[in-house]
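Let's practice the habit of predicting before peeking. Look at the sequence and jot down your guess about where helices and strands might fall. Then scroll down.
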Amino acid sequence: MTNQEKKLIAIDLDGTTLHSDGKTLSAYTKYVFKQVEALGHTICIATGRPLRMTTDIYKELELQSPMINFNGALVSMPFDKYWEFTKKEYIKRSFIFDLLRHQQNFDLEFFAVEYRRKFFLNNFRHVEPEFFGVETFHPYNRLRADRLTEDPHAVLFSTRIKDKFRLAEEVQKHYNNKISVSAWGGPNGVLEIVPKGVSKASGLKHLLKALDIAPENLICFGDEFNDVEMFKFATKSGGKAYAMKNASNRLTPHASEVIPWTNDEDGVARQLEQLFLS
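Done guessing? Here is the structure:
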């Protein structure tokens, strides 16, 4: 297969590829992915999740492709720290210090500062350790100003405010649009803050160039607000953007097609089987 024929297939995880428990990958999904890859196409995880919460899924799918984490703030080859196309974006620590001072303004349940392989959390009361991919929280996971010795990739936060999209707009406005705020899909109703201009789309642009794949050969799957820029990029470039049946109405207007299956019905695999294996 030539690069002119090769597709880059970007898959969101929560609410898209994973079942609604945020963990399950069916045997059918894993089988279809292997068959599609065997044809020469590349399947790439594109998620808001940090790297440490994605590597087990990556291994279960037996992928060998690059991965996009933190909604585009990290593009890497998970088990190759010397990969020449690694791309990292960071939030200034000064932003974190300011958020610590103003956290009560946003009625937050928790917020976490995320690095490639570690995280710091402002409190342990309103979140389960499993959410962060650990069995238990440790004292060194507590967020303190003196532990912020490096700029992080992203900030996650959960709020008691029901309209999380309105809150996202308020946070962006508070910081003069110098950051980007988007929502995760699936059962994890959290917001993620990344540097301005960073998105799954920016990560995919970088990856397409690194893999020498034409933008019109991009196919993506998603369900939530943090997939909007990826969908816009795919459709504008002549690629395809497939929204899940369970997708947010904030995403579906940007889709090439809304597929007739949910994440719990293995919709990504069913669509890929129709596209490549029928």
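How did you do? The first strand starts at residue 8 and ends at 11.
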